[in-house]
């Protein structure tokens, strides 16, 4: 049987896997100022309208629109100025017919007034009189009560991640505390007898642990809390014990397997033994990432990543990030950041697997964006550090020629 | 004089302004695990090569390539198996001609060997003998010492922001502490007699402070540390005193002015009085954002933003974010996250100013992305909370018709 029939299509496997992820992190109540990047656990309903009073959108004069009917430069309407609307307070007067009041942008339109004339369309002839040089319609330059947000309106749904604008919206409503999903705790294990902590001197044959740290960082950038369980030797019992502990203590477990086939199989065995349904995919039609393992136990997502650092990080981005969203109950997904660029070199690829290629994006001589492929053979982490993003080459393509317009998914 | 001649082109004004920002935040040394999102203060030079020993890229047999010359399925080369390379240690043997050793992916190629034959291209006939079914060239399936990174190579320049891949690269080199730019402290002031803290009940005529919080959140998402100086009344002396204090205590000051023309002028006066060169731009050909003020004093950037929340946040994104980068010494700029989409409705715009329009991005019926314009008149913050990003309409265009392909800059 050809290999591509045994391997699963990566993103269909991901959908099947995520569908089984039923575990959810708990909910906590936070001050809104501390909730940036968190996911709302319940919808926000406006307890009051915005604005709560009729507001002027310009500097000028509050008037009764009817009093300005037919007014023009040559035939102004003369209105009696009865006062000035104070900022931040309700005016203490009511406009009667033939009257006007000075008002500033954001000021409360006084009772009796139904429009505001812009300062530019007036002339102050006398202390107590203003000439209106242009007619205004009822409601002109006024925001009505509830025009932006009505009382009882759902302004933000549950499952939305809070960006600066949402934080501001909550503040506008006086919602200074919010219920949000707890940060998902992600247990991270590295395996491999050759892997040592980065702060230790290297002996011949040893390499430093990179994956624990790149995956921790990725988890942090996507709202999770990494919990590192260190480096586990290539030993079934040791891996089983460490993984079980991580599984009990966290919401999701990510193991970066050693690089040899036998340690990858050991990882799959361990992940499969944690509970039902166990391993759902082992081997995907994707490069890098073919040996990726997707599993679920007790509704919690479990991921086995290839040991080489490029493959581990790229596939953490493909699989760990969406699982983090699911654990937090994200319902509003934003488009993934990307740019379009023209390939500055050929991208080789084999048919039968989707390939994700690191590229650097730069401004070409004509000012348009170019994507320069970063060729790698040994999957070193610096190849990714030098990249701005990844270009997918579809499964049915045998590479893309230089000059092709491609979408670069930014890191 | 037509207004657009008095107003400055926004991004040219920004360049002139940033050129005068000579202040830099200090440098601090951090554990690399805590440096995610920080900006490197000095280049990273590899103190050792990566890999530090010749590594196998496959599971198989380490051999002398010459011994496999002419080997094929029908005429295998028979080699004596002298041992197995342990993971994480140097092998204790040297290969002599006619010998081979079991090796795993990532294992150290033993002295005497110069290539690795993949397991798939071998057959183990006897305990001490392997049949090699395919010839290998010298160096095949081996990464040489320094092939990825050479000793003394600059692997990361100063001024790069550390993403997960860079954190991993630093760990691969054993660089567990790094010198990075301190987080810039940004002093944030809101002005307006009508503005009250979000946790207070609203009286008629009052609105809650939104801008202090949206700008704080934006500063946080771009590596800065917001310092809120609260709400200052519309009074020159009070604003002067609060601004001076913020100026002394922080690296950058951002004031969101009250909404009326007089309070905006007051902000410009205050910013102009802090030192040379003072206000460089007051009034830009951009919507929203026309009343934006760009100033510099003692090399520190100062920004006056319009009071309405949409305008304040959009222009903080245009002007505060690049100033934060400059303060941190960023030299490597990444492409701004964006997507391309087809406009689902007309975007009205006036010629003579660049307009940035909030849109929501959604999947259209044919699967392609559509950008749905979010129309706003009163600049409420929820209009931005409902948007995925902004579409620029160039200064010389009078709107864009539905169906136009546009670039959406994501928040």
Task: Describe the protein's architecture and organization.
- The structure is a homodimer of 411-residue chains.
- Chain A is α/β, with parallel strands linked by helices and 411 residues long.
- In chain A, 20% of the residues lie in helices and 30% in strands.
- Chain A has helices at residues 3-6, 10-19, 164-172, 211-221, 236-249, 261-272, 309-327, 381-385, and strands spanning 27-31, 44-45, 55-56, 60-63, 77-84, 99-103, 115-118, 122-126, 129-132, 142-143, 154-156, 177-181, 185-191, 195-196, 207-208, 225-232, 252-256, 277-282, 286-287, 293-297, 300-305, 338-343, 354-363, 369-373, 389-393, 405-410.
- In chain A, strand 20 (293-297) and strand 21 (300-305) form a beta hairpin.
- In chain A, helix 5 crosses helix 6 (261-272).
- The longest helix of chain A is centred in the last third of the chain and has 19 residues, at 309-327.
- Chains A and B meet through helix 3, strand 14, strand 15, helix 4 and strand 22 of A and helix 3, strand 14, strand 15, helix 4 and strand 22 of B.
Strand and helix layout:
The structure is a homodimer of 411-residue chains.
Chain A: H1 3-6, H2 10-19, E1 27-31, E2 44-45, E3 55-56, E4 60-63, E5 77-84, E6 99-103, E7 115-118, E8 122-126, E9 129-132, E10 142-143, E11 154-156, H3 164-172, E12 177-181, E13 185-191, E14 195-196, E15 207-208, H4 211-221, E16 225-232, H5 236-249, E17 252-256, H6 261-272, E18 277-282, E19 286-287, E20 293-297, E21 300-305, H7 309-327, E22 338-343, E23 354-363, E24 369-373, H8 381-385, E25 389-393, E26 405-410
Parallel strand pairs in A: 5-6, 13-16, 13-17, 14-15, 17-21, 19-23, 22-24
Antiparallel strand pairs in A: 1-12, 2-11, 3-10, 4-6, 4-7, 5-9, 8-9, 18-20, 20-21, 22-26, 23-24, 23-25, 25-26
Helix pairs in contact in A: 4-7, 5-6
């Amino acid at each position: 049987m050809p290999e591509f029939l045994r391997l699963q299509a990566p993103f269909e496997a991901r959908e099947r896997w995520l569908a089984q992820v039923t575990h959810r992190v708990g909910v906590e109540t936070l001050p809104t100022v501390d909730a940036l990047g968190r996911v709302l656990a319940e919808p926000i309903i406006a307890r009051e309208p915005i604005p709560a009073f009729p507001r002027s959108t310009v500097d000028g004069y509050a008037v009764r629109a009817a009093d300005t009917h037919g007014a023009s430069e040559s035939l102004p309407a003369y209105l009696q100025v009865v006062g000035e609307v104070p900022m931040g307070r309700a005016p203490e007067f009511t406009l009667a017919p033939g009257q006007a009041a000075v008002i500033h942008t954001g000021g409360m339109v006084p009772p009796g007034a139904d429009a505001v004339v812009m300062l530019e369309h007036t002339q102050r002839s006398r202390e107590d009189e203003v000439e209106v040089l242009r007619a205004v319609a009822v409601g002109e330059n006024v925001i009505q009560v509830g025009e932006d947000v009505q009382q009882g309106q759902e302004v933000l749904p549950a499952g939305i991640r809070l960006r600066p604008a949402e934080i501001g919206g909550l503040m506008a409503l006086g919602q200074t505390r919010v219920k949000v999903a707890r940060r998902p705790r992600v247990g991270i294990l590295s395996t491999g007898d050759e892997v040592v902590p980065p702060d230790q001197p290297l002996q011949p044959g040893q390499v430093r642990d990179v994956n624990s740290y790149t995956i921790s960082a990725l988890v942090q950038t996507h709202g999770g809390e990494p919990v590192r369980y260190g480096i586990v030797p290539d030993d079934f019992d040791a891996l089983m014990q460490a993984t079980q502990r991580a599984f009990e203590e966290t919401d999701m477990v990510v193991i970066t397997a050693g690089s040899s086939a036998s340690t990858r199989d050991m990882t799959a065995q361990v992940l499969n033994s944690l509970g039902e349904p166990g391993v759902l995919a082992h081997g995907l039609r994707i490069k890098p990432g073919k040996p990726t393992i997707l599993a679920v136990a007790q509704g919690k997502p479990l991921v086995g990543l290839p040991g080489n650092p490029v493959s581990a990080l790229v596939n953490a981005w493909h699989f760990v990030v969406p699982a983090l969203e699911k654990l937090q109950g994200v319902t509003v997904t934003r488009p993934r950041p990307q740019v379009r660029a023209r390939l500055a070199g050929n991208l080789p690829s084999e048919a039968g697997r989707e390939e994700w290629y690191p590229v650097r994006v730069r401004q070409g001589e004509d000012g348009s964006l170019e994507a320069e492929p970063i060729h790698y053979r040994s999957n070193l982490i610096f190849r990714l550090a030098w990249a701005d993003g990844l270009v997918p080459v579809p499964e049915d393509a045998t590479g893309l020629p230089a000059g092709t317009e491609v979408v670069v998914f930014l890191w």
